[in-house]
Design brief:
622 residues, nine-stranded mixed beta sheet, five-stranded mixed beta sheet, 17 helices, 28 strands
């Protein structure tokens, strides 16, 4: 390149020496015999490829050349040793800040200056500790590593080495890469992560200084946070696992424990569950009632409670005073002294403190510092169940992106596993088209990405009573909104309406003027109620004898046929929906069956309804 002039080049030359014009371009000026220092004129930044360090010229010039008459002091010495602890080289830190390596010369002195490390094996800082540890924190510099080591943790930095050459030393380890909060720090941390993820059992990129001041590092984070929570925070970040094959061993089956169900077949320790529901159905009331059942150890809703546990309900929509009203109403509904809940139930509102556990960063969805705080609180208070209502407000991921939602659910799964707790995520159904009715037991009606269905251990739907169900139970349409059903939704295993778990809403007066809804178990009316054996026999003999015109009765009411057998039950005083339910029950038991006969009116063979007299209630005529 033809030499060019400029004040910026002249300024850089004061610190880097003569320009290597043969390797330079108009935008990037190179210094050194091999051009190892690059100066970007547009960005006013430099990078030294030999030591893999760089920065902005204005910020880092004092580190390169001290002010006139400034005395440089060695403030720290960092020894780099081999597996046996023998010294290989030493990195010295000066004040004003700069680093200079040196190596033993074998004669009791030191080799210093350019090329002093030629021919010497490069190793990570504190190599013997790395080899003995399972978990390792990777920092940009030795100062940060020592801050973590002072807490009894294993931490390292690369010093004069290159991660690609040293990665094999981390084989089988769990690695947590902590970048400094600047562009150069992120670049170096990514190089470390990319090299280590290929050999480590797991590697996590833990951007814990994000949002702190420029160039903030691990030592700065420790200065403003509780150091005891550091590993919890690092564990909360998404990890990349190394794929390995695990051999089956029969003896391991003896150590497999039974699943630790905490609430019916919905909540299990160490796993995430989901409750999916349209808005305004009563899902929050259901969740709080479940929470109180768990916190008191009582079966309030028909679900088994094997042990009394502490519950944390985190509602990200409603204010805390509204949560208190609902708890008050539930306690009145089930005659519970609210004092029983003290120390067992924890209530928080997102209006007072948001709880966002995951957010996008550099194309990935990563855990936020809130995860470590949640884990610390759950462990501190021995909380076994956490309810998050609703899921959508607990993260900033794209709700319709399967990959991102799967990452969010991984974060909650990590919390559940770390705390040996059950987590219930409350989620809305997608906005229905006109006339749409949510399908009971169908998790695919959940809003957003379908990853939710595969990621949760158990799921349930909460849906209002439909018009058809109201007709079947003899409920007035104006009252059907007071009834909701809960169905197992994992694998779309929906129970028939008559076998679903039903709840009825009640309006509870709190004593200070407010009325608040509460749910209580409800049993649908039995279609056989009021029939009795005599009336059943009378209808069955009529079916068996057939009509006066010798035609057989029919099981279904096609085109309002007068031959429908259900009309005989209606004539006995039950509604048509109940009549259909009775005929279905009799058919499923084998008491009624269809068989072929010659229809004398239509003069052709067809199927008609018959009675198995051996299964007749009472088993006698008349």
């Amino acid at each position: 390149m033809k030499p060019v002039s400029g004040e910026d080049i002249a300024r850089a030359m004061e610190f880097f020496g003569p320009v290597n014009w043969s390797l330079s371009s108009p935008q990037e000026i190179r210094f050194g015999r091999k051009g190892s220092i690059a100066f970007n004129r547009d960005e006013q930044t430099y990078y030294d490829f030999e030591v893999e360090q760089g920065g902005h010229l204005d910020q880092l010039l004092p580190e390169i050349k001290p002010a006139p008459n400034c005395i440089e002091l060695v403030v720290e010495k960092y020894d780099y040793v081999n597996e046996d602890g023998a010294l290989l080289y030493q990195q010295r830190r000066y004040e004003p800040k700069r680093f200079m390596p040196r190596a033993p010369d074998g004669q009791g002195g030191w080799r210093e200056g350019h090329g002093c490390l030629d021919g010497i094996r490069r190793v990570p800082y504190c190599l013997p500790e790395i080899l003995a540890a399972d978990e390792i924190i990777v920092c940009e510099g030795e100062k940060d590593a020592n801050s973590a080591r002072a807490l009894g943790l294993c931490a390292t930095s690369k010093g004069a080495g290159a991660w690609a050459d040293m990665a094999h030393l981390f084989t089988g380890k769990r690695v947590y890469v902590v970048p400094d909060n600047d562009k150069g720090g992120a670049t170096q941390a990514r190089k470390a992560f990319d090299a280590l993820v290929t050999v480590a059992d797991s590697a996590s990129y833990c951007d814990i200084t994000k949002g702190m001041g420029d160039k903030a590092d691990l030592a700065d984070w420790l200065a403003v946070n509780d150091p005891a929570t550091l590993m919890d925070v690092l564990h909360s970040f998404e990890s990349r696992q190394r794929v390995t094959a695990s051999q089956f061993r029969a003896f391991e089956m003896a150590a497999v424990e039974p699943r630790k169900w905490l609430y019916g077949k919905h909540l299990i320790r160490g796993y995430v569950s989901a409750t999916v529901s349209p808005g305004g159905v009563g899902k929050t009331t259901l969740e709080l009632t479940d929470a109180i059942a768990l916190a008191t150890g009582r079966d309030l809703m028909g679900a088994r409670v094997p042990e009394r546990v502490k519950v944390w309900h985190y509602n990200l929509e409603d204010p805390r005073d509204e949560l208190m009203r609902r708890v008050w109403a539930i306690c009145r509904q089930f005659d519970i002294d609210p004092v029983e809940l003290e120390g067992w139930l924890y209530l928080d509102s997102g209006r007072d403190c948001k709880m966002v556990v995951a957010e996008p960063a550099d194309g990935l969805v990563v855990a936020t510092p809130a995860v470590g705080q949640v884990i610390a609180e759950m462990e501190k208070r021995d909380i076994s169940v956490m309810q998050v209502d609703p899921l959508v407000k607990s993260h900033y991921a794209e709700e319709n992106d399967n990959k991102q939602i799967d990452a969010v659910l991984d974060v909650f799964g990590d919390i559940a596993k770390r705390c040996s707790a059950a987590i219930d995520l409350v989620h809305h159904t997608r906005k229905p088209p006109q006339g749409f009715v949510a399908t009971a037991g169908d998790i695919n009606t959940a809003r957003g990405a379908g990853a939710l269905a595969g990621a949760v251990r158990a799921a349930r739907t909460v849906t209002p009573m439909s018009d058809k169900e109201a007709d079947g139970f003899g409920i007035e349409h104006s009252r059907r909104a007071w009834y909701v059903r809960v169905d197992d939704a994992k694998g779309n295993m929906s129970a028939p309406a008559g076998e679903a778990i039903w709840f009825e809403r009640h309006s509870i007066e709190l004593g200070q003027g407010d009325y608040v809804g509460a749910l209580a178990p409800w049993t649908p009316p039995d279609p056989f109620d009021g029939l009795g054996i005599d009336r059943c026999q009378r209808v069955l003999w009529q079916i068996n004898d057939g009509r006066d015109d010798e035609q057989r009765y029919l099981l279904t009411n096609k085109s309002n046929s007068p031959r429908w057998a259900g009309q005989l039950l209606v004539d006995e005083g039950i509604n048509r929906a109940a009549a259909r339910a009775v005929l279905k029950a009799w058919t499923e038991s084998g008491l009624l069956f269809m068989d072929n006969y010659h229809n004398p009116v239509r003069r052709k063979p067809e199927d008609g309804l018959f009675v198995d007299l051996g299964k007749m209630p009472g088993n006698s005529h008349g």
